Amino acid sequence: MAKARHYKRLEKNAVSSLIGFVQRGFGLLGKGILKFFHACDSKLTIMVVPHSKGKVVNFQTNAFALVFGILLIIGIVASFIYFKRQDSGIRDELARATKENRELLASFDELRDENNNVLQSAKRFKSSLSQTLSLLGLNQFNQSKNVAKNSNSSSDLNSLFDTQETVSGTTKEVADMKQLSSYLESAIQPIEQIGKMLESQETLFTDIPNIWPIKGGIGHISQQFGQNRHPITGVWYIHKGLDISTYRQGDGIMATANGQVVTVAYDSGFGNYVIIKHKHGMYTRYCHMATIKVKKGQFVSQRDVIGTIGNTGLSTGPHLHYEIHIGSDVVDPAKYVNIKLTNQK
């Protein structure tokens, strides 16, 4: 019991001490606040004395108003400096944006010029495609496609070139490019048709003599088809083929089309020569050969090597005498070889 009373007494003393400390603290705080307000409320007299004998100006204020005024002036000056710096940054951003805008305008002008070039190329493409389709007999297909496209979305290239109105909210250039893209999409199918047609005709191309007969595309025409002066006798005569020279012996001679070897022989004029029979009543003759690598009755394919260039028979030097016959007629081989005839003599 004595210990309990002792603890209670200590507890009361501690609580009393704490309450007393808090009361003294609040008392000191209140006094400090009162002193601060008294100090701020203290009167001050400010006098302005001119150097001349003018009137002395004085006015009264208190410390609070003076401190508030000083802080207000400092705030105004700080705000001015801050916004001045912000204004300088905005001006720099504006100058940079103006420069970028000029560059964008220049790029836009260049893009517009390129757009015009693309449209001009598209016009030429349209004309060429129409002519090609017409030659291949696909013009009806092309027209039907155009009619369908015009009835649905006006995406034909004609609407691109004739249109004057653009979609609201888009530039003319963007509208033109969209229509051009739509037309090119519609042009894919006829181009694919052309490819399929050419693929189906590949066999026909290999059955007709249409390539340069010397392997590697080398050589030049030393004497053309038609009226010529004979290089040995000097007499004018009709030259019935093309003379192709490489200035040497041994270069490969190729079959210019699929066919069957019908003649392998020697002649005093043609020397060693080969005749190949092709479809559609066509024959080719290869003369003055040094070696022959095929036999009579053998079937050959276009580009197969059938022999080499030589100087056999009535010849002034190594060369190939090449002829094309259609039935009983001899035709100019230059119309059939698939090269540009240059360096002709």
TrEMBL record:
Every M23ase beta-sheet core domain range: 238-333
Ranges that cross the membrane: 63-83
Record keyword Kinase present: no
SUPFAM superfamilies: Duplicated hybrid motif
Keyword field: Membrane, Transmembrane, Transmembrane helix
MF terms in GO: metalloendopeptidase activity
Highest taxon of the lineage: Bacteria
Entry protein name: Peptidase M23
Organism of origin: Treponema saccharophilum DSM 2985
Upper lineage: Bacteria, Pseudomonadati, Spirochaetota, Spirochaetia, Spirochaetales
